[in-house]
């Protein structure tokens, strides 16, 4: 998990799902689901964004709440998917 990946995920989450947290920052282990930042529909939006941004394909069977529960988990998922840090 790279710092730039974490920063980009954080910017996306704050910009589209948690503008109230913009000034505070979000720890990488902050539970986005339990704290109401994202729900099941928003999680699918995050999955779609990850696919587009990192040029990876995610099968429905690969989508797990655990992989999208925190910013750190999302970054780990991206790394496991073998996505380049800056796709062309």
Mean pLDDT figure: 91
Low-confidence stretches: none
Structural class: mainly alpha
Query: Would you count the extended β strands for me?
Result: 0
Per the CATH scheme, the topology name is Non-ribosomal Peptide Synthetase Peptidyl Carrier Protein, Chain A
Number of domains: 1
* Element string (H = helix, E = strand): HHHH
**Helix percentage:** 40-55%
Shape designation: globular
Estimated share of beta-strand residues: under 5%
How many distinct helices?
A: 4
Let me know the largest β-sheet.
Answer: none
Radius of gyration: 12 Å
CATH level 4 superfamily? ACP-like
Q: What is the CATH architecture descriptor?
A: Orthogonal Bundle
Q: What is the class in the CATH system? A: Mainly Alpha
Instruction: Tell me the distance between the termini.
Output: 19 Å
Short description:
The chain contains four helices and no strands.
Protein model, in words:
This is Carrier domain-containing protein. Residues 4-82 form the Carrier domain. InterPro entries: ACP-like_sf, PP-bd_ACP. It comes from Microbacterium imperiale. The chain is mainly alpha-helical and 88 residues long. It has one domain (3-80): Non-ribosomal Peptide Synthetase Peptidyl Carrier Protein, Chain A (Orthogonal Bundle), CATH 1.10.1200.10. The chain is built from four helices and no strands. It has helices spanning 3-16, 40-54, 65-68, 71-80. The radius of gyration is 12 Å and the shape is globular.
């Amino acid at each position: 998990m790279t710092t730039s990946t974490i920063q980009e995920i954080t910017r996306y989450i704050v910009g589209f799902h948690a503008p109230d947290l913009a000034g505070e920052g979000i720890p990488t282990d902050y539970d986005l689901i339990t704290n109401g930042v994202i729900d099941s529909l928003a999680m699918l939006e995050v999955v779609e964004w990850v696919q587009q941004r990192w040029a990876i394909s995610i099968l429905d069977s690969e989508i797990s709440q655990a992989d999208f529960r925190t910013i750190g988990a999302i970054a780990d998922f991206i790394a496991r998917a073998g996505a380049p840090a800056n796709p062309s």
